[in-house]
Amino acid sequence: MRQRYHLNDRQKLVIEIEQFQNQHMERSSNYDSLKKSIKDQIKLLCDEDYLGNRRKCMECGIRIRNGVKELEAINVELNSLRAKLSENFKKKYGAYQRILNLKQLYLEETINYYQHCSYINKVYQLAEEKDVAALGEMASSEVEKFMLEWNNNKAFREDYAKNVLQSLERRKLSGDGRIRPDKYKGDSPLHPNILHT
């Protein structure tokens, strides 16, 4: 029994020794592989190709950083140009609106002139045809229209008075349409207020 016990102890010791040797071999092989990988890394770091590639990578990184800075500068300039373009579009739109308003004002200002020209042409035509009755009807119709507008529209009266006075002034006539006396020539004449006549 004692021998058996010693035998068991001995076997256990042998097994433990074998396990220890196996572990030692595994560790030493791990150590060797680690040592080899470190040597490979050192060799790789010291390798000229790697250093050249690393330099190229660094140069590429610098170029990329410079490119990013240039791109940011271009974006800033582009945003500035977009803002200016937007402002110019607003100005252009405003100018276009002013042109339309001026055209509308021009049409409003000249419509009376063209109506008057059309009326005069019709009068000449009727005069050539010697149609006195039609001329009389036209005259009375126009007088009625004028008097109706004069009596009901203060703005019309003011505009008419302003235009008549300007016309008289240009022709060097007094406010009632007569030729100015010599003492008023060169002076601005006093015009009577024709709004209340």
From TrEMBL:
The keyword Protease does not apply. InterPro entries: PPI1-4. Residues 176-197 are annotated as: Disordered. It is a single-pass membrane protein. Transmembrane segments: none annotated. GO terms for cellular component: endoplasmic reticulum membrane; plasma membrane. It comes from the Eukaryota. Keywords: Cell membrane, Coiled coil, Endoplasmic reticulum, Membrane, Transmembrane, Transmembrane helix. It is found in: Cell membrane; Endoplasmic reticulum membrane. Its main location: membrane. Belongs to the plant Proton pump-interactor protein family. PANTHER family: PROTON PUMP-INTERACTOR 1, RNA-BINDING PROTEIN YLMH-RELATED. This is Uncharacterized protein. It comes from Trifolium subterraneum.
